[in-house]
Structures are given as C-alpha cells and as structure tokens.
Amino acid sequence: MKKVVFITGATSGIGRACAYRFAADHYNIIVSGRRADRLLALAAELREKYSIAAFPLPMDVRDQAEVTSGIAGLPPDFSKPDILINNAGLALDLSPLHEGNPEHWDIMIDTNIKGVLYVSKALLPVMIKRGSGHVINIGSIAGREAYANGNVYCATKAAIDSLTKSLRMELLPYGIKVTQIAPGAVDTEFSEVRFLGDTLRAKSVYKGFEPLHEDDVANVVHFAASLPPHVNINDLLIMPTAQAAGGMIHRKNEN
After folding, report:
1. pLDDT in tens, 143-162
2. Would 20 be classed as within a structural domain?
3. Alpha helices in 185-225, H assignment, sequence order
4. Which of 10, 74, 102, 177 lies at a CB distance of 3.0 to 4.6 Å from 31, suitable for a disulfide?
5. 212 DSSP assignment
C-alpha cells in the first residue's frame, strides 16, 4: 500500500516541489493551499504524470475551523497520512518594528505558527493511534539567526524551531518522527511575496550568487522521509554554498 503525504502550501515553491518529488517516488499526495485553481491543476498533473492518487484540499491554514473540517472530510484513502509536511509560510515586508504593519504581523503569525499548530493538531491523533508517522516542519535560517528588519518573520521561524523540539519530545512514546528542515536563501516566490509583488526588488535578493532551488530543498525533505524507521533527522540546516550565515552571502561582481 502506498504511503500518503500531506503537504501544506503546495501551490508554489518548496511545497509544490515536494509534491512532485514524492509523487515521483510513488507516494500518494494530499496537496493543500489557498489557491484552488492551482491545486486542481497540480493534482491532475501528478495523477497523469506519475500514476498516483492525488487529492487537492483547498484551505487556509490560518482558519482553524476550515482546517479541522477539511481534514475531517478527507476521503478514506487519504484520511490517515503517513507524512505531514508543514510548509505553508511567508514573510511580508522588511521594515524595522516601529515602522511595521500590524496586519502583516498577524498574517505571518497566523500562517507560520498557528497554521502549523492547527494542521498538526488535526492530523496527529491518526498518527498516534497508528503508532507511526513523520512530521516535517519547514523552518528557516531566520529561525536561528535574526536579522535587522526581519523581526516578526524571524520570531515566527524561531517559534517553529522550538515547537519542533517540543513536539519531538511529546511524540517520542508513539514512534512518530519529527524533523525540521531549515533552508537559507531559496529562489521561490518568497521574496516577491515579501516585497508585495515588487519583482525587481525580489530578483535583487538573489543577484550575484546561486541560491538554493526549490528542488534542492524537496530532495532533502524526501531524503529525511525515506530513512529507515529507526533513523530520524532531528534538524537539518541547508544553505547555498555562497551563504555562510543568515546575512553573509558572497556575491560575484558582475561588472
């Protein structure tokens, strides 16, 4: 019987890349996100290309009632996921705290922290009852090394770092693995979202070096999920070769 993977934030970036990577290895997939049209197209493509079962679950992880009802309504073949990839997350703006937008703070906190809590709470009872499972939280170098003007985003990813550690202890008696994969700079829609659609500013973030690509992170997530039952990667920091620390990137002079 094929294993089932539940992926949040699957409509783009790392989440989408994870869907392709696990489908290529014959996992059945639940793809979740807010953009229903993208989810439907992705699920159809996964079925066609990889001959696996794919279920699109449109939902906003910020809405607990929506998360709870959506997961409770999963079809029988998808109702007991083996792996949960908590990937949904975002950054909005890059401003000092005293100039920050509280609406942006709420969106980041509700997505990056509460979304992980809501989805995990809805799915963990199934894993606990079964006595196996794997929760993979996508963190960030920002959760290890705060940077100026990253205040709230860094705080949310630091929360995921702590949450992952605590969750691993709590789930230890049930044979459930808990992993954090924390990437450095990844070229996805992340910066475009952060800069509110300013594509030129977003592109400048990755100028002069080769960042991680979404497939690089998806391959690492798949590796962590594919290890034998007695082996768990607790925490993994993955960086571009050109990045030594959160705010230290070697950029080539393009002149």
Report:
1. 999 999 999 999 999 999 99
2. yes
3. 190-194, 199-204, 214-225
4. 10
5. B
